[in-house]
Design brief:
536 residues, globular, 10-stranded mixed β-sheet, 5-stranded mixed β-sheet
Length: 536
């Protein structure tokens, strides 16, 4: 950050092309310095996030004792240059989450709930798996924590519960979304599993759950002995248990704070169905979920903490959009397209002409990639690294799942809609610019939105406001003029097991590899000389 301006924010996976790539010593030299500008300039403040210590009322004074003054020269481990008098600190992960969720939110005061996965190491050797706080622009108070000892045999806490559920159904990293997508196909009562135990901040997992989750052959999706029904029923039971426990935590936190506003963060905050129930059913009137609530958001929280506590500056950054990646240069776009004899490169005259050509493709049943401006910081393509399609065609969902994304058939796609038209098509309580809430599609328009309506009638919605991205606004308005529907199907511009594309070269490579029909890279529109077949 330069003052309150975020120069760029990016996840390591976008640079290494290894999805969910964790941080490691030497990342600065190996991953960041070769790709990102500005890191060669002297730093005034550096804040790192570590996994020791919980967030306590006296935390600010404890961290202040760790600050290193008068740092100068080059840091041998990270190859960073520090200005004379630079200040450094290391802060606990949950504090970084709290700061990163609240300070960029629209609230003056809020309750904050941090629900992580495996938890961060606390000072006494236990893991902090969840924490709740009261915060305003001046102070923070910890309301409660859930800690788990490393010697504990079973998982504890909401995040660890959902992580264990995910590993039972879909082993590997980052598959929690598959569980939430599968859940509506199941019966949450079929397996007779009990609810999670909630006592204040403490969430206990009844013994019946780990016993069932250990039955890998029965519930591992895709294995020979696992039926779709059993897998869907387990996903449904786990999703229901997670939602009910999250609501119980929210009610407890509201009772302790009496506040109207809630910030939800941590890796478990990407569950759109649970987030929607918080907004609908909890005592909180407003719920804010940042677009990057996981570890990436904690990194931004570190920067904001440094601005506030070490530089004694105000933090004016707000989450009005998620386009925080480095801006691609026109020269790089043109270099990626140079000599591409297998491609047809058009140069429409202006944004309106480019959007009109994109709409020609979309309205004819074609699937179009959109690569424009700075990339999304969070995990979801929100119109700068996106694949767009016609939401009215039910087979479009199946075709993109199988041919483009190469993933499970039951996975839904998100609708993108103009904010002022959203309530006509969806039952929503508030704008959803970051695709963080699943809402009900109104029954009267479900036939018009077959490709973006999940089996339970829900959709994980992205709203686009009047002051949001002008290309997206123009596409939505133009699609409505041509079809009567102000909605587009939106999914991330990437292939199977890949992070979002970052550079123009990666966008063109993905376009060649995937069966897309067009790729808009303003000011250019790219098509293939040998066009893939159209969705049936």
């Amino acid at each position: 950050m330069h003052g309150s301006h975020v120069q760029w924010a990016i996840q390591k996976e976008r640079l290494t092309r290894h999805k969910h790539h964790p941080g490691e010593p030497g990342d600065m030299d190996a991953s960041y310095l070769p790709h990102l500008s500005g890191l060669e300039r002297p730093l005034d403040v550096l804040v790192e996030c570590h996994a020791s210590g919980g967030v306590a009322n006296e935390l600010a004074s404890e961290v202040a004792n760790e600050v290193a003054n008068e740092v100068e020269g080059r840091d041998g481990d990270r190859a960073l240059v520090f200005a004379r008098g630079a200040r450094r600190a290391r802060i606990p992960q949950h504090l970084a989450h709290v700061v990163g969720a609240f300070h960029p939110s629209p609230f003056r005061e809020a309750a904050v709930m941090v629900v992580g996965g495996q938890g961060s190491l606390a000072a006494d050797g236990r893991r902090e798996v969840a924490s709740c706080h009261r915060i305003d622009r001046e102070r923070i108070a910890c309301i409660g924590q859930q800690l788990r000892g490393d010697g504990d045999r079973h998982a504890a806490g909401l995040g660890m519960f959902y992580a264990s559920l995910t590993q039972a159904l879909f082993p590997g990293q980052g598959n929690e979304g598959k569980v939430a997508d599968l859940a509506p196909y199941g019966d949450p009562h079929a397996l007779g599993l009990p609810p999670l135990g909630v006592d204040g901040m403490q969430v206990a997992i009844p013994h019946a759950w780990p016993v069932l989750l250990d039955d890998a052959e029965r519930f591992r999706f895709g294995s020979p002995k696992a039926s779709f029904t059993d897998c869907a029923n387990l996903a449904a039971a786990g999703q229901r248990a997670f939602e009910e426990a999250l609501l119980a935590l929210a009610r407890w936190l509201h009772g302790r704070t009496g506040l109207d506003d809630l910030c939800l963060t941590g890796g478990a905050a990407l569950n759109g169905a649970a987030n929607a129930r918080l907004l609908r059913e909890s005592p909180f009137r407003r719920v804010f979920v940042p677009p990057a609530p996981g570890a990436a958001g904690a990194a931004l929280g570190c920067a904001i903490y440094g601005l506030l506590e070490l530089a004694s500056r105000s933090a004016d950054f707000r989450w009005t959009h998620d386009y925080l990646g480095p801006a691609p240069q026109l020269a790089d776009i043109e270099a990626a397209l140079d000599g591409a004899s297998d491609l047809i490169v058009e140069h429409p005259r202006g944004r309106d002409a480019l959007c009109a050509r994109m709409l020609d493709l979309l309205c004819s049943g074609r699937v179009v990639g959109l690569y424009q401006g700075r990339s999304e910081f969070g995990p979801r393509g929100l119109g700068h690294r996106s694949i767009l399609a016609d939401p009215r065609r039910e087979r479009m969902r199946d075709w993109i799942n199988v041919r483009v994304k190469e993933r499970e058939w039951f996975r839904p796609f998100a609708p993108m809609v103009a904010e002022e038209r959203a309530s006509q098509y969806f039952d929503l309580q508030a704008p959803s610019p970051f695709m963080q809430f699943s809402v009900t599609v109104r029954s009267s328009v479900m036939p018009l939105l077959a490709a973006v309506t999940h089996v339970d009638g829900s959709a994980r919605l992205q709203t686009v406001g009047p002051s949001d991205d002008p290309v997206l606004r123009a596409l939505l308005a133009g699609f409505e003029v041509r079809t009567g529907v102000p909605v587009l199907l939106n999914t991330s511009l990437c292939g199977k097991q890949e992070p979002l594309v970052e550079t123009p070269q990666e966008a063109v490579a993905a376009f060649r590899r995937l069966p897309l029909h067009g790729l808009a890279m303003p000011p250019y529109l790219v098509m293939k000389r040998h066009e893939p077949g159209l969705p049936a």
